[in-house]
Amino acid sequence: MHFFNDITHFDGKFFSSLVMLFKKPGFLAKEYMKGRRASYLNPIRMYVFTSAIFFFLFFAFFKPGIHPGKERKKEAKEVARNADTMDAEDSIGLAKSKELTKNIPIIIDSANKISISGDGQEFTDREEYDRYQKSLPKEKRDGILKRLYVHRMIALHKKYDRPEGGGGNELIDDLLEKFFHSLPYMLFVSLPLYALFLKLLYARNKQFYFADHGIFLIYLYIFTFIFLLVFFTLSRISGFAHFSWLSYILILMFLGGVYYAYRSMRNFYDQGRRKTIVKFLIFNILTSVSLLFLFTIFFAFSVYVI
Length: 306
Known about the structure:
The protein is mostly helical. The protein is 73% helix and 3% strand. Helix 3 runs antiparallel to helix 11 and helix 11 (210-241) runs antiparallel to helix 12. The chain crosses the membrane at residues 44-62, 183-202, 214-234, 240-261, 281-305.
């Protein structure tokens, strides 16, 4: 309800908050912490609104994928079926799917059997694999993680195996679709985690509570949503129009975004340049490592739910 109210009944707070967000990095979070909140839009409402707009436009225009649409996928399959071969696009998709799974200890042969490398055994379905596992001594059976993994690989093979080709493309498309739709949840999980990092970095600053770090990050996320929309738009224009000079603008924008985050941190926590730079670098290392971990977790989850 608040979302639709924000769309249809802007009272000026959103725009005044937006101006201050870009004009004075870290200012809004500091004002909120000091209790001066009446003149600005509530950060949580602002976050919900900007994130909804961002992901709507992202999924509509900027989301990467192999195919530009379902119709092209259908046409590619029809051509492959009539020609009894895969077209170039399907070949690329299959090559990519093989590249993604080149380290997976599972081989699919021409008879549609799943071969577990190392065991030399072949299985056509999950039940056959389970029967084989039960026939082995307990000490030689696969662990629970490998069993779940093999079950999932068999299910994916059954779901995406296409005699006419194109299954590799479809698998990657569905996987990316599920993964990108999990990004809002990943950001939600990352917020308290990053707030914890800031809490540890500024443990000596007793005036900052855990919630204060969270509010600071919410405003930083809001800036990032708007920044990325502009960045993706210019990048798309550069790709379509082949304006090489836009590449330099994108580089400057990226550097400006990094500086904005640093400046927000320095203004909000009121520390000197040297201390802020050190903590900014440590914070970015921690967030990068944790983001990679979150990406891995959510990507693995996407594999199990497609």
